[in-house]
Every structure is written in structure tokens, then in C-alpha cells.
Amino acid sequence: MQVVVPFADESPKSRLAPALEREERRRLARAMLADVCSTLRAVGREPTILATKPLSASTLDALDGPDVNVIVDDRALTPAVNAVLESVDETVAVVMADLALATPAALETLFETPGEVVVAPGRGGGTNALVVRHPEFRTDYHGASILDHRRKAREIGASLETVDSFRLATDVDEPADLVEGWLHGGGHTRAALEAFGFDLETTGGRVRLVR
Ligand SMILES: Nc1nc2c(ncn2[C@@H]2O[C@H](COP(=O)(O)OP(=O)(O)OP(=O)(O)O)[C@@H](O)[C@H]2O)c(=O)[nH]1
Ligand SMILES: C[C@H](OP(=O)(O)O)C(=O)O
């Protein structure tokens, strides 16, 4: 199985702009990438980062462990991932770099779920992770991509399984997701949020990050 982690470093996490400055968004994106890569390694899966450009020294420094495999493809997400699917004749898993809450157990559930196409839906219609065991399947990200992926699996007659997982469904996209990263995210993600000066506020029955 080849495990691909798409990562666009130029101006990541733009939806977090109401809560984070540009450099903080870049730092958080790198921290989440580091957590995803170390969690993949914890289950014996060496990630291949599918990057829009060569990774910067600061991004590489943020990653634990030995040199990481990188494929550079400046095309948009969908054609870049589909180029990987077209280039290999083995199972391909696609795990998004903003799955800060992913744990080894959650990833093992994803990888061990049988099916020619296995999807881990994100809240809001995304496809946070994917395992492809059918040669004709191709991705179609953005918008309600989970619907597109279910339709594509039907069209090619591929068996489709869905992994129902809090940890794989929670990608850190919007300011309201930051508290999940604080509460349940990996070490790099939590450290970045703490470095930004965030703390948990639980007054009035609400749980949120403040700074
Ligand atoms: N290789 C590659 N990765 C991408 C591309 N667009 C997004 N990604 C990655 O795919 C994952 C999910 O994408 P998004 O949630 O849209 O991340 P994002 O583009 O940083 O966030 P927004 O700017 O808020 O849309 C993130 O880890 C991104 O880094 C792309 O064009 N190419
Ligand atoms: C890549 C995209 O992520 P979202 O924009 O839904 O977070 C998707 O999952 O289709």
C-alpha cells in the first residue's frame, strides 16, 4: 500500500484566517502534517507527501524521523492524486495532512476496512481519507466530494465502505475546529496552538479556545 499525504504549503488553511495570522496558519499546517506523518509511521506506514512544491527547510524540520518521501506536483489536488492512482498498480491510501486528531487505531481501522473503495467522510461533505483498491477509481475533491466519490465507486462497480470515525472526520478547517485540535490533536498540533497563546475556556457551558 502506498500512503499519500497531500500538502499545499503556499497559503494553507485560509478558512482559519479569522482566528490565525498567515504565518500561524502555515505553522499549524506544518504541525498537523507532522502529527499525521508520525501517526502513520506509528502503524508502520511510511508516508509519501504529495506536495505542490519542494518542502521548505522549516517544513522538513517540523517532521519527525528520517527523511520523508516527497512527490512534487503543482497541479490541483484532484489531478495530482489521480496521477498517483494512475501511476501505481497497488493499493493507494490518501490521508489528508490536516487530520490532526488521527490516532494509530483510527488509521488502522481505515487501512483494515475491506472494500475496493474505503472512504472516511469529513464533516461538511469532504473526503478526509480514502483507500483505493480498484484500478478505475479516480478522485474528485472539493465541494461535497464524498458524494462524488460514492457515485464514482458505483459507476465502476466498486464495493464501497465507509469508516465512521470521529478522529478521521475531524479535519481542522475552520476556527471552530481549533478546540478539537487542542483537546484531541497530536503533540505538534497542541504545541503550536499553545505557542500561539491559546487556552481553553469552559465558562457558560461553552468549550472554546481563547487568547
Ligand atoms: N498536493 C496538494 N495538496 C492540496 C491541494 N489543496 C489542498 N491540499 C491539501 O489537502 C488537504 C485538505 O485540503 P484543505 O482542507 O482544502 O486545506 P487548505 O487548502 O490548506 O485549506 P483552505 O485554504 O481553507 O481550503 C490539506 O492538507 C491541504 O494541504 C493541492 O492543490 N495540492
Ligand atoms: C479536499 C477537500 O477538503 P475540504 O475542503 O472538504 O476540507 C475534500 O475533502 O474534498
Automatic annotation (TrEMBL):
Function description: Guanylyltransferase that catalyzes the activation of (2S)-2-phospholactate (2-PL) as (2S)-lactyl-2-diphospho-5'-guanosine, via the condensation of 2-PL with GTP. It is involved in the biosynthesis of coenzyme F420, a hydride carrier cofactor.
GO BP term (any one): F420-0 metabolic process
Enzyme class label: transferase
Protein name (record): 2-phospho-L-lactate guanylyltransferase
Any one GO MF annotation of this record: GTP binding
InterPro entries found in the cross-reference section: CofC (IPR002835), Nucleotide-diphossugar_trans (IPR029044)
Transmembrane segments: none
PANTHER family: 2-PHOSPHO-L-LACTATE GUANYLYLTRANSFERASE
Catalysed reactions, semicolon-separated: (2S)-2-phospholactate + GTP + H(+) = (2S)-lactyl-2-diphospho-5'-guanosine + diphosphate
Oligomeric form and interacting partners: Homodimer.
Pathway annotation: Cofactor biosynthesis; coenzyme F420 biosynthesis
UniProt entry tagged with the keyword Transferase: yes
Family classification: Belongs to the CofC family.
EC number: 2.7.7.68
Keywords: GTP-binding, Nucleotide-binding, Nucleotidyltransferase, Transferase
UniProt keyword Ribosomal protein, yes or no: no
UniProt lineage: Archaea, Methanobacteriati, Methanobacteriota, Stenosarchaea group, Halobacteria
